[in-house]
Amino acid sequence: MTAEADLFETAKCLCLASRRAARAITSRFDTVLRPYGIRATQFTLLAVLALKGPTSIGELAEIIGAERTTITRNLAVAAEQSLVRIGSGVDARARIASITARGRQTLRRAFPAWRKTQNELTNVIGIRTADNLRQLSHRSPVRKSPRV
């Protein structure tokens, strides 16, 4: 086989396929959550904070599986909308995020649209594929993330 022929394998790259799928899924959730004034990233933050209570930015990053800087940016946007409050922890360097009453109201209002989209997308990809995706997302060669 030639090197060029071997490169055709990259058309089936799982990394590329998963990135494209993630963008398509995120775009769909963003579209349905737009009338509620939030994006999928903010919905996730609100849901985690509603379930977990006040949480440090580092722990949020671990739970969600994102970089601290990404969580910090997303929290800043949510704070500007008065959906979350960010305060100091026991250690003055630690930042603690909590959901506000407005955030809870937004989450409650947006939840039916999220649920409908979740069910539609699950039906499109199939329950088995959705379960496999969730299982794969909780695996890490370095550390295991807490499940939400």
Percent in strands: 5-15%
Terminal-residue CA separation: 46 Å
Q: Please identify which CATH superfamily we are dealing with.
A: Winged helix-like DNA-binding domain superfamily/Winged helix DNA-binding domain
> How many beta-strand segments?
3
User: What are the low-pLDDT stretches, counting only 5+ consecutive residues below 50?
Assistant: 141-148
Overall structural class, as computed from helix and strand content, comes to mainly alpha
Mean pLDDT: 89
CATH architecture grouping: Orthogonal Bundle
Sequence of strands across the biggest β-sheet:
1-3-2
Helix-strand string: HHHEHHEEHH
> Into which percent range does the helicity of residues fall?
55-70%
For this structure, the CATH topology is Arc Repressor Mutant, subunit A
Give a quick account of the main beta sheet: strands, pairing sense, barrel closure. 3 strands, antiparallel
Supply Rg: 18 Å
Q: Looking at the structure, what is the overall shape?
A: globular
* Helical run tally: 7
Supply the CATH class: Mainly Alpha
Question: What does this molecule look like?
Answer:
With 148 residues, this protein is mainly alpha-helical. The chain has one domain: Winged helix-like DNA-binding domain superfamily/Winged helix DNA-binding domain (Arc Repressor Mutant, subunit A). The protein has helices at 3-7, 14-33, 40-52, 57-64, 68-80, 101-125, 127-137, and strands at 55-56, 84-88, 95-99. The protein has a three-stranded antiparallel β-sheet. Mean pLDDT is 89; it is low at 141-148.
Task: Give the arrangement of secondary structure elements.
Elements: H1 3-7, H2 14-33, H3 40-52, E1 55-56, H4 57-64, H5 68-80, E2 84-88, E3 95-99, H6 101-125, H7 127-137
Antiparallel strand pairs: 1-3, 2-3
